[in-house]
Amino acid sequence: MLGDWRPSAFEHAMHQFDEAARRLKLTENQVAMIKEPRKITEVLLPVRMDDGSIKLFRAFRVQHNIARGPAKGGIRFHQNVTVDEVKALAFWMTFKCAVVGIPMGGGKGGVVVDPRQLSVSERERLSRRYMAEMIDLFGPDRDIPAPDVNTGPQIMCWMMDTYSMHARNYTPGVITGKPLELGGSAGRKSATSLGVVICIKKAAAEIGLSLKGATAAVQGFGNVGSYSAKFLQDEGVKIVAISDVDGAFRDPRGIDAECAMRHVEKHGSLKGFRAADRMANPLEILEAPADILVPAALENQITEENAPRVKARIVAEGANGPTTPGADAILDRKKIWVIPDILCNAGGVTVSYLEWVQNRVGYYWAEERVNADLKRILETAFEAVLGAMKEHRVNMRTAAFMVAIRRVCEASEMRGLYH
Ligand code: NAD
Predict the structure, then answer these.
(1) Cα–Cα distance measured from residue 157 to residue 163, given in angstroms and rounded to the nearest whole number
(2) CA-to-CA distance for 293 and 310, rounded, in angstroms?
(3) pTM confidence score
(4) Angstrom distance (rounded) from CA 188 to CA 223
(5) Distance from Cα 33 to the centre of ligand 1, integer Å
C-alpha cells in the first residue's frame, strides 16, 4: 500500500525504477550502474536586466546516464523548477530513449525563472548565458538539449548560436527543436503528439475501442495537448474537454481542436474561449466522461485523490510524470490502460534524434519521411512493450521500464567499467 505518500518527482521516478528492477532481478552492481544520475551541475547565471541591474538565476543540467549515447533532453524555464524535478526528468529521458531504441542517453536542464516576467532581450541574454556557462557539458556527441516547458525554437537558436560562436564552427547538431530555417526537422513541432496518437491507436485496437465516435479530454493545450487533440479529431475522436493554465472547457457535442488552436495562437491561451462551457474546477477535466484522457500539462495531476473518479478507458501520458505512483495503482485496479510517458510522449525525442541525424549528414528530409520513420520506431517500441506486458503480466509502465532498463543495462555491461 502506498497510503498517502506524495513523492517528489525524483522519488516517483525511483519508485518506478525499483518496481521494474525487482521484476528483472537486477543485481546490486547493475542497479549501481544505471539508477542514479551521474552528473548534476548547478550554476547561478548572472544576467543584466533591461534596467541595468544584474539578476542571478539558478540553473541546472543533469546527465542521468550516457551508456547508450550522448545525453539528450530539454531545458525547462519555470519558476518552480527544482533540481529534484530535473533529476527525475533526466532519468525519464534515459529510459525513454532506450524504450524507443534511439542511441542516446538521458539529460535535462532547468532554469528557475518565470519567463513571462522577462523581456525578449532579457530572455535572450539568459538563454545565451545558460549555454556559455555550461558549454563544456554540451556538444553533438556529449549532450544535446532541446525545448521543454516555456522554451521553444527561438531559445534553441540563441543557444545554438552561442555554442557555434565559441566553437568557431556552425554546429546545428548541438541542440534540437530548432526552426526549419536553421537546421530544424520537418515534423518536429507535432512529433510528440503524433506519437501520442500512434500509441492511442494501438492501445484502442487492443481493447476493441473504435476511435471513430470515441471521446477524449485533453489537459494542457500547449504544444503536446493541442496537436494531440487535433490528431485525435482527425481520427474521428470527439474532443469533449480541453484545458490550460487559464481554465477548462467542455462541450459534450465536441470542441473543434483547430478553432481552439487558433484562439490560443491569437490570445496566448484558452482564456476567453467561448466555443465551449467553462468548467468551475479545471482539475475536473481529469474526471470527464471520455474514453480517452490525455494529460499533457505538468507532473502529478492524477493523484490518489482523483484517480478513483477517472472515467477514461485509456490514459495517454503526453506530459512527463502526470500520474503519481498511488494513482497508478488505483488506475491499474480499475483496469484503465495507462500508456506511460516514457513511451507515449517519446515521439518528440524520436524526431529530435532524426533532426540530429539530418544535422550531421547535412541533408534534410521531407515531412513524410520523418513521420514514416517516427511511426515505424514508435510502433516497434509499442509492440516490444506490449510483448513484455503479456510475458510478465505487468502493466504497461512496468513493462516499458523493463524493456528500457534491460537495454541500458546491456549497453552499460558491454562497455564495462573503466578504471
Ligand atoms: P507547453 O508549454 O507548450 O504547454 C503546456 C500547457 O500546459 C499549456 O497549455 C499550459 O497552459 C498548460 N498548463 C500549465 N499548467 C496547467 C495546469 N495546472 N492545468 C492545466 N493546464 C496547465 O509545453 P509542452 O511542450 O506541450 O509540454 C507539456 C508536457 O509534455 C510537459 O510535461 C513536457 O515535459 C511534456 N513533453 C513535451 C514534449 C515536447 O515535444 N514538447 C515532449 C515530451 C514530453
Answers:
(1) 10
(2) 9
(3) 0.95
(4) 11
(5) 31
